[in-house]
Amino acid sequence: MRGSDGYFNPLSWQLLWVAGLYFGYVHKTQKKVDFFKGNSQFLVALGIALVLLLARHAVIDLPDEMHHYFGKANLGLLRIVNVAAQLVILFSLLRVIPRNSGLPWLSFIGTYSIQVFTFHIVIIYLLKPVGRFVALNFSTTAQALYIIAVVASLSLPALFYQRFVAGKAGTLVPDAPPDRS
Length: 181
Fold this sequence. Notes:
Elements: H1 10-30, H2 39-56, H3 77-95, H4 104-111, H5 113-137, H6 140-152, H7 155-168
């Protein structure tokens, strides 16, 4: 994939941040995640996400002038469509998980979302050369393990804040937020 691999515009990505805030607010105030209710919406979103994944990774050949629509720099149109499709898939999958069972890891990092988001931005810039090296020199399995390790590292700022900062102030909070349903 050609393009602006080393840069993204944080202001354009605020669209996703604000959309996440909105959906989180609606979820908390209306106690539901059924924004997209139909199975047909799930199947269409799954098809869109699959086609865009294959196109993004050059399994499906696209004309060169289409590549800028995947642009990271200013959040290209096909990137927005891909994120929207993935949200429909996520919300559809969340419907089958009972609300009381929760997703403990996501609840934990969600409790410290500002710290996790800040760490995420820092890690994007710091690990860019490592990620490129891994992508060019290692197998798909090694790349998947690298991605899992990076995603798991999102727990670090939450753990640090919970254990050290809040703990030293005497306001240590529980591992998971209380259920407010």
